[in-house]
UniProtKB/TrEMBL annotation:
The organism's place on the tree of life at top rank: Bacteria
Recorded family membership: Belongs to the RlpA family.
Classification lineage: Bacteria, Pseudomonadati, Pseudomonadota, Gammaproteobacteria, Oceanospirillales
CDD domains: DPBB_RlpA-like
Keyword vocabulary terms for this entry: Cell wall biogenesis/degradation, Lyase, Signal
Keyword DNA damage in record: no
Segments forming a coiled coil: none
UniProt-listed Pfam families: DPBB_1, SPOR
Protein name stated in the entry: Endolytic peptidoglycan transglycosylase RlpA
Function summary: Lytic transglycosylase with a strong preference for naked glycan strands that lack stem peptides.
One GO term of the biological process aspect: cell wall organization
Gene from which this protein is expressed: rlpA
Amino acid sequence: MPLKDVNDGAPNGTFDASQIPDAVPQIHKGPVKNSPYTVLGKKYYPLKTAVGYQAQGIASWYGTKFHGKATAIGETYNMYSMTAAHKTLPIPSYVRVTNLKNGRSAIVRVNDRGPFVKGREIDLSYAAALKLGFQQQGTASVRVEGIDPRTYKASYTSVTNKPLLKTAVKKDAGSSHLLSTYQAAKPQTDRYADTPGKAHTTGASSAHSKKLFLQVAALQDQQSAFKLRHRLQQLTGMPVKIVEGTDTQRPLHKVRIGPLPSSTVVNKIQQQLNEARLGKPHLVVE
């Protein structure tokens, strides 16, 4: 439940917005959270549906301070996923958000309540703000449009093979945050440092050091690879890339988690994938 917090910020690292897939609208078959609620003395009455919803206002974003914490719907907030918080849209629901300054748009899944700051329309994940191009400014004028999952037809586009996370994570702090999160609950996401700043490297991390990846699958169907990538991002909170290859002249889409900061993290993610029955991934060193 995002409230204004001066200690919130962006994660360490440099990210490629082109690697971030939109949320894919899906028909929700479970209960929808749209009961009236009160925050800071004000009562809110959520809508029954997001279909037909249109509004313009100010968008903000929330990041490291809330990463790994529970959302209003009981899910784990992942700042690398395309999600959002809204005061009155039903959760879960899907909306298209358009940055009115640069024309960029993205589809996000509403799974949290907020922002409880006067004049704010929607609070986006760090990934969504990055994709819309206002992560540096902090806020942007946007248009929000509800999506009907029953009529929406997802379209997938090709992606490059560059990993989402380009810079190294500090081994001591990053790994300990990851391990504590994995031990707390499953499924869960990783936690990076709570304050933004320059990415750290260890003695083993140099421009020529090898990078660790876990290859989960090699699929012929591109859409299946995209769906698996999205699931792995949600499950682990780590960057996931798709490497194009061939096998006896058949195209293959190799889904790899990483780069991973240490062998300890590799082992923990292998264990998590095994518990989720996602096969037995093998280590790839690049």
